[in-house]
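DATA CLASS: polypeptide
GOAL: derive structure tokens

***
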Amino acid sequence: MSRFTSLKSFQFFFSLALLLVVSANAFDLTVKANVDNAQVFIGDKFNYEIQVTAPENAIVDLPSFVGNLGSFEVKEMKNEKITEGMPKGTAKFTWLATLNTFVSGDFLIAPQEVNAVVGTDTVKTHTDPVAVKVSNRTTGEETDILEVEDPLSDPRLPQWLYILFAVLGVALLVFLGWFLHKKFAKRGEAPQLPPYEEAVLALKNLRNKNYLAEGNQGDYFMSLGFITRRYIERRFEVDILDATVAELKKRMAHVAGLPQAYKESVVTLAVETEPVKFAKMKLEGERCTFWMEWADRLLEDTKPMPEEEKEKKEAAKATAKK
């Protein structure tokens, strides 16, 4: 009876362990990290690359190397998905960062977290650490010095003459400033357009720049995001122009008068185009067209009514009288 119980217990724990192994390896995932030069001099650029081999339909997430990566400055960052030459159903996801540093020593690029998702299955792993040695361009043991030469005659003008020139230059700048102020003071500043009219004009100018036809999605979405944020900021009196994605999520929830669908889509625009603006990734052409049409709908659905404009003008007049 005791042997039977022991056999049952062994089978139970073996099945449990097998289940954990299968769930932990829901799909194949291999990760490699390397540098193209492990020994560099101060100021030299080198490439740090992470290669992830996963199912073709996987969503692979890696940290975005913007700014610094440990002791190294990130000069450029590229992402790429490769299916050509890969086994059927698999793809290679690569992250290539160009790095440099102005500090010598032995460094270790820390392991980077890699997350891959296929359907409901998720695999998390880390890259191996990568060692990089940065050397000085000199040994510090040089003993040679330049030969002593005869003193040269100083061709410079007397110091008092330099002071005189400086005083005359300052006086000339003051005169020019006074003259230009007197000339243009009467013209005043150009009147600022209302939020809706300003945004419509800005979108028209954006289309005329043909960023998408030139393949310049970074500047396209940088401009589109600025135009829509500035419009919402002026139209609904909310501070979102320089907000990060995390701050934007919080602030958009409290924008009074803006439909909920637009609150959510403003955040979606920021999240979806962040890699395009800062990591040189690309969106499909249909998606680019969708966001421009979305901006047009945003302006038309939220433009102020005539009575609202009238109330604002009366409020402005009342404030001016005070």
